Amino acid sequence: MRFPIRIRVPASSANLGSGFDTLGLALSLYNFFDVLEVLPSGRYEVEVIGEGSGELETDIKNQIVQSYEKACGTWGINPLGLRIRSSNAIPLARGLGSSSTAIVGGVMIANLVRDVPLSKEELLPMMVDIEGHPDNVVPCCLGGMVVSCLENSDLRYVKLPRLPSDMVAVVAVPDFKVSTEEARNALPREVPLEDAVFNISRAALLSASWATGKFDNLPWGMSDRIHQPFRSRLFPGGEALLDQVSRIPECSGVAISGSGPSIIAFASGSGSTVAKYMCSVFSKHGLRSRFFVLDEDYQGATLEALSRSTTRR
Ligand code: HSE
Questions:
Q1: Pocket test for ligand 1, best of 184, 228, 232, 263 (most atoms within 8 A of CB)
Q2: What is the 132 CA–ligand 1 centroid distance (Å)?
Q3: Strand 81-88 and strand 44-50: pairing?
Q4: For the CA atoms of 12, 169, 51, 106, what is the dihedral angle to 10 degrees?
Q5: Of 89, 85, 3, residue with least CA distance to 297
Q6: Atom of ligand 1 nearest to the CA of 15
Q7: What residues are in contact with ligand 1 under a 6 Å CB criterion?
Q8: Residue 97 CA: which ligand 1 atom is closest?
Q9: Residue-wise pLDDT tens digits, 156-171
């Protein structure tokens, strides 16, 4: 393995409304994991800069390291100790796939220790196995909007064509955290048949429309009855946002991003009207928020060499 190296991993927005645990979109907001030097086996030093600084683990308990060790263990490779710098722009526990970046990054680092490295596609089953569901890690690794289907450990996926360049994804991120566990626990165990049909038809419409460029179908395709009605109550303003943002003329579809509480909306043009509106609704419900106007990331996780001068402590 040649160090130092940098892995750039994008944020992702899972579900997109109707496609619960199935659809996910990579976004142009990134965490950077720099692997700076090899340390004695079993020793890990992780410096966290930006999002998660002072919060994320900095030793063997860090999720990048855990994923790295899990992959090495599965492949029967002795893991090298590492010094890693994690420079994070993706907010934690907001439904933007921050933990998926750590999993994708950790497995990609482990791949560098292999005698014969695997392709990103070949690494996906390991990443999905660690995460438990595919809709964040697959777009995070491959980029783009991806339809994923998991049966036990068997994974099928299709990466869809690009979002048109005149459309942006506006993401409003409130100053409020919801854990994926809490958001999953809020869901009923059973779904009425008519709600299942509602979601199947919308998820199919969304995927087919994205694949064929019929983006005017997004508002329909992103509607959902199986998770958002329950999750939008977990944070102030959730129900109001889903209801009101969809009525702004510039908005082409709105959903809770992943398990929330961020909200993602598609818009044509600059997205500023939608962004300001979303933050004003959070504000009316007593929450500070910030927004990102993002493009689709179509590259997924990337690996590049770094110059030696970047390794200083
Ligand atoms: N599909 C997952 C969920 C994404 O909605 O619970 C969150 O990681």
A1: 184
A2: 10
A3: parallel
A4: 20
A5: 89
A6: 1
A7: 14-15, 20-21, 133, 135-136, 180, 183-184, 258-259
A8: 8
A9: 999 999 999 999 999 9
Cis ω before 4 (30° cut-off from 0): yes
- The token pair at 146 is 């991806």
Tell me which residue has tokens 């995070």. Answer: 140
* 234/220 Cα distance (integer angstroms): 24
Query: What are 137-154's pLDDT values in tens digits?
Result: 999 999 999 999 999 889
Q: Whose CA is nearest to atom 5 of ligand 1?
A: 259
Nearest CA to ligand 1 atom 3: 259
- 178 C-alpha to ligand 1 centroid (Å): 11
pTM reported for the whole predicted model: 0.95
Q: Which domains does the chain have, with CATH numbers?
A: 5-160+297-311 (3.30.230.10), 167-294 (3.30.70.890)
